[in-house]
Amino acid sequence: MVSFDVVEHMAAEFRGLVGFERTSFSVSCGAGGDDTIVRALQCMELAWRASLRVCGSKSSAWFTDITAKLSRAGYRLTSKKAQEAWLVRPVNNPRERDAELRFMDRLGEEGVLERWPKRALIDGRLGRRRRVPREWSQHIAALRASRMKWDFCETSFARRGTVGESDGVLTAEVTARAFAAGPPAWSSFRLAAIVSLSRAAVLPRSIPARVRHRILLVLRRAQFEIVNEDAIEQFGLSGRRIVARKVVPSALAAASDAGATFIGLVGK
Predict the structure, then answer these.
(1) Which helix (H) or strand (E) holds 19?
(2) What is the pTM of this model?
(3) pLDDT in tens, 164-203
């Protein structure tokens, strides 16, 4: 069973970092072999959902039977490929969360149930809202205390702001993400920085050269890898966005580097 220590360490390090908020959390279990189900509970873009990945050949009888039964059990099919299908069900409150945890526990990795429930599809909450730290903590505590033997967890914190000299049309977002898998315990910490023109911006058509030079200098000094620079030069892309990434050794380094990088990018 995976350790949740990485989640606690990230929360502790980012608790006092101004402007950064938790933006995602997910746990899952299952290796993803043929004729198995990977079960997960995720919060993406402030919306919680139960997620099931059905693994195996889509032409097999087992695959067809399981996806049909999960659909009748209230899961919405969102993607279907040659070797996997994704099904999700929104989780709007603790009662629905606990119900899906019980269902996933009974479902198991092979999807063997004596009696399958028949449930209507439900919609997730409309719109987005900020979640207070206590709400995050309550959800995470419930997942940790459940009967599920989670073998992977992920969490991220991010801050978004306007680049100072861009007259409001250029935004910077720095995200710190941590992963843990086990046993044995394994963790990884990564940073991502994205600077982009607003979608509504007509002019300028690309990031001004002077601003672009300063942003690249900040990122390179912080030892980020610029992942889209070659594509812009080789394929003549619009130059409306700069994407960079970096691996760091710990939650402490993730928080320290994320805060410094954000200040360097926005210029204040």
Answers:
(1) none
(2) 0.88
(3) 766 767 899 999 999 999 766 789 999 999 998 876 655 5
Considering only CA atoms, which of 209, 202, 201, 203 is closest in space to residue 242? 209
Domain boundaries, the chain: 31-145, 159-178+189-266
Is there a contact between 236 and 230 (Cβ–Cβ < 8 Å)?
no
Rounded-to-integer distance, Cα 162 and Cα 143, Å: 36
pLDDT of 213-233, one tens digit each? 999 999 999 999 998 765 544
CA angle (266, 267, 268) in 5-degree steps: 95
Identify the sign of the CA torsion 264, 9, 224, 174: negative
The pLDDT assigned to 93 comes to 87
In angstroms and rounded to an integer, the radius of gyration of the C-alpha atoms of the chain is 21
Distance of alpha carbon 224 from alpha carbon 218, whole angstroms: 9
Q: Tell me the residue length of the chain.
A: 268
Q: How many CB atoms lie within 10 A of CB 172?
A: 25
Give the number of other CB atoms < 10 A from CB of residue 254: 27
The secondary structure of residue 165, as a DSSP letter, is G
Tell me the backbone φ, ψ of residue 198, rounded to 5 degrees.
Answer: -60, 140
How far apart are the C-alpha atoms of 48 and 26, rounded to whole Å?
9
Half-sphere exposure of 153 (CA within 13 A, CB side): 21
Contact assessment for residue 222 and residue 260, using Cβ atoms and an 8 Å cutoff? yes
Strand partners, 195: 172, 242
Rounded to 5 degrees, φ, ψ at 168 are 80, 0
Please write the tens of the pLDDT for every residue from 7-65. 999 999 999 899 999 999 999 999 899 999 999 999 876 688 999 999 999 999 999 99
